[in-house]
Amino acid sequence: QTHEDVVGNPKTDEMAMNREDGYGTFLTTNQGLRVNDDQNQLKAGERGPSLLEDFIYREKMTHFDHERIPERVVHARGVAAHGYFQAYDDNANLSRAAFLQPGAVTPVFTRFSTVAGSRGSSDLARDVRGFAVKFYTEEGVYDLVGNNMPVFFIQDAIKFPDFVHAVKPEPHNEIPQAASAHDTFYDFISINPETTHMLLWVMSDRSLPRSLRMMEGFGVHTFRLVNAEGKARFVKFHWKPLLGTHSIAWEEAQQISGKDPDFHRRDLWNNIEGGNYPEWELGVQVVEEEDERKFDFDILDATKLIPEEQVPVIKLGKMVLNRNVDNYFAETEQVAFCLSHIVPGVDFSNDPLLQGRLFSYLDTQLKRLGGPNFHEIPINRSLAPIHNNQRDGHMRQTINKGNVAYGVNKLNHGYPQQAKASEGGFTSTYERVEGHKIRLRSKSFVDHYSQARLFWNSQTDVEKMHIVKALRFELSHVQHDEIRERTVLQLSQVAHDLASRVAEGLGMAVPSANGVQLNLAVPADGNVAHYQSGPV
Ligand code: HEM
């Protein structure tokens, strides 16, 4: 007997009023009119032209014509399932969040995705996987929007459009569609050294999960947890699959992509249907605020991880996915994850990638989901009640009563009232911030190779061979020699054996271990801007 059998799932129960299966009913128009024939148009004579009057035809066709919404600009291909998160009894008093209190059970909706491919692309592309979890907590929706790798390609969100334009199919002919080698991607990689660490993760077995059920997840950025006493600590979030982390080989991935591009989607669906529910433990690495600067990297730099040998992962609870969606579009496609969906007890850090993401998701969803009311779509609806003075907009469902729609009023006795922290109100962590207004990458973000080297050295011989073979495969598909050479030069900054093994496989000169001069379009610290802004 599962937890859901015992207590149900408040979120899926709440969505019940929107479910419909048409069983035992008559066919109707969208106005409820019973339809006697929706297979033949209304015509002038048996062989005559169609009539404009045919509202049944027009309604059916118009709805069809408008079925599609834009796919996500990234992470377009995904699969999702419902489940619950149960907090463990002891979470070291790290957070006041209701969903982390001992034993608390919270419904979740989790979407896994690839990043670069379109909605119809293969599940087995060599790519990062998205790992986004929506917690429907009693204090509002909390989204943990992570990936299956602990670091990212870039350090500052303002580079994201450049990065994604380099990753996506080339704009003139949309070749290649899969996230495998092409000149724009390696051009970007080779002149942006901050990508090196993540490149190695993507070239490793981590980018070819055997199953979504066997994949880790990471919040990537440093966040904060804040406890009831107001004590804030920095944390890195981890999801650890109870089935362990497993990958497949590139040769297998290519074959599966050809034969069954839905491999991961099918595997997740079948296992949930069969009662074989996948489980992950949520954990955090905790760094006291006073220890923020004790590492030889900056914890605000999303291209760095905190080694688990240095800071172990504390387990906070377990997620179980136990219910497939009823309707892919209504749930998986319309779900909107957003980093700024946050609850008291969790807070942000000043990571410039995180800060930029805080803007991007709502912005893109306003377009993708057609306006400001997408929080009313069943899958996005909060279980906690919503009261505010926002009104109107496309497709508004809520019927707000009364003549008052502004804050700080006396007509409605001041309602809805602002909530103090003691009343469950969200308060940002108190933090002293001071500095010059400046476009600049922090000097503490400059070391791009040490952790890439750490990753390379952490790999077994077989795993290293896979990385080398992946890079040879990828770079052999790059057309421009100078892009290949620049990429191998980057690799030589990580480890000579890595660069020389890749170079050998490509029939290129092996770069010398020392004294390599990188001819980068941007300085090695990745910072173009300080040439524009003047000295500081
Ligand atoms: C999806 C932007 C970095 C994880 C998206 C979407 C955008 C976006 C616009 C589409 C959202 C939608 O249409 O609903 C950005 C920007 C980034 C960034 C601007 C950096 C500056 C990251 C990082 C992670 C990540 C570092 C992981 C920690 C995801 C996931 C999704 C997503 C998992 C898919 C959510 C879903 O399943 O619907 N991102 N992203 N992104 N992003 Fe990012």
Question: What order do the helices and strands come in, and which of them pair?
Answer:
Layout: H1 3-7, H2 10-14, H3 55-65, E1 78-87, E2 105-114, E3 129-137, E4 140-147, H4 160-167, H5 183-191, H6 196-203, E5 217-218, E6 223-226, E7 232-241, H7 250-259, H8 263-273, E8 279-288, E9 314-324, H9 328-333, E10 346-347, H10 352-368, H11 450-458, H12 461-476, H13 481-494, H14 496-505, H15 529-533
Antiparallel strand pairs: 1-2, 1-9, 2-3, 3-4, 5-7, 6-7, 6-10, 7-8, 8-9
The structure holds protoporphyrin IX containing FE.
Structure description:
- This protein has 536 residues and is α+β, with helices and mostly antiparallel strands.
- 27% of the residues lie in helices and 14% in strands.
- It contains 15 helices and ten strands.
- A hairpin with a 2-residue loop joins strand 3 (129-137) and strand 4.
- It is globular and about 80 Å long.
- The termini are far apart.
- Mean pLDDT is 94; it is low at 528-536.
- The chain binds protoporphyrin IX containing FE.
- Protoporphyrin IX containing FE (HEM) is lined by residues 72-75, 78, 111, 113, 130, 132, 145-147, 152, 157, 160, 220, 335-337, 353, 356-357, 360-361, 364-365, 368.
- It catalyses: 2 H2O2 = O2 + 2 H2O.
- Belongs to the catalase family. HPII subfamily.
- This is Catalase.
- Decomposes hydrogen peroxide into water and oxygen; serves to protect cells from the toxic effects of hydrogen peroxide.
